Amino acid sequence: MRIALATCQTLPDLFTDDQLLREALEARGAEAHPLVWDSEAGTTDRPDLCVLRNTWDYYLKLEPFLVWAEAMATRTRLLNPWPLVRWNAHKAYLLELATRKVPTVPTLLARRGRPLPVAALAAAAGWTEVVVKPAVSAGAHRTARHVSADPAAQAHLDELVADGDALIQPYLVGVEGYGERSFLVIDGQLTHGVRRPQALTEGVALDRTLERVTPTDLEGERVRLALAALPVEPLYARIDLVPGLDGSPVVMEVEVIEPRLFLQECPEALERFADALIKIIK
Question: What is the CATH number of domain 93-103+175-264?
Fold first, then answer.
């Protein structure tokens, strides 16, 4: 049983969480190995299963990554499945989730080459502060908080739409006390949650253990609603919640490509993930 754990050039030996996953898979008799997706081996390897884990540069090389992922899905089983990867790569999925009655952060989508009037739209929505970000991004890349009427907000959006799509969202002040709460689902089960500081600074350290949190009934309901609205069932998922404009939790992100799963914080989730992968290829 050969399992490739796809990663990026800056993490050729995997992130700590996924080193633990590799060990757990090997303890179950699998041959698990890291595979840098855009290396020569990445284009020729034919494992029994390829799991997207630390491909954390994909948003910087989106088209090559999607070509690679689709090709890998023709050679072996890709997890999460290719159609879900393609769907999740652009944050317009938030608009789709909202149409499916999933409470999400209010989001305006500006298409490439067509900037929207930030100040006017924010004033109409009652947003005194906004967050402007690329529609294809991760780790707060090119993301910033602005006073809505500040010309810097418009300048930031104009810069982003010069080379891609972008989002405008309200800054949700409730995140300052609540944090961003990430809830992890492995093989259909909500296994654990962690509280993270708000991610408005690119390059926040990954090498720290975060506080585990137990989901409230309402948080659990939001996670289940988001999962049910996905176009394909994932093996693993991370649902990030923040307090909405009315204070109740809303979905900020659904991550089903290569989310950090906080397996160090939850050893039982690590075991469940390894068991699920072995079950798939047996």
Answer: 3.30.470.20
| Pairing mode, strands 249-255 and 236-243 | antiparallel
The domain 2-88+275-281 is classified under which CATH number: 3.40.50, 3.40.1010, 3.30.70, 1.10.260? 3.40.50
Element (DSSP H or E) covering residue 196: strand 189-196
The edge-to-edge listing of strands for the beta sheet with 236-243 is: 211-213, 189-196, 180-186, 236-243, 249-255
Q: Which residues contact 210 (CB under 8 A, 6 or more apart)?
A: 194, 195, 196, 262, 265
- Size of the chain in residues: 282
Sole residue written with tokens 């891609």: 164
Q: What is the pLDDT of residues 44-99, one digit of tens each?
A: 999 999 999 999 999 999 999 999 999 999 999 999 999 999 999 999 999 999 99
CA distance 250 to 227: 13
Region(s) of the chain under CATH 3.40.50 = 2-88+275-281
DSSP 67: H
E strands present in the chain:
2-7, 31-36, 49-54, 77-79, 108-110, 129-134, 144-147, 166-170, 180-186, 189-196, 211-213, 236-243, 249-255
CB 143 within 8 A of CB 91: no
| Alpha helices, H only, 102-253 | 118-125, 151-161, 175-178, 217-228
Residue whose token pair is 């798939």: 280
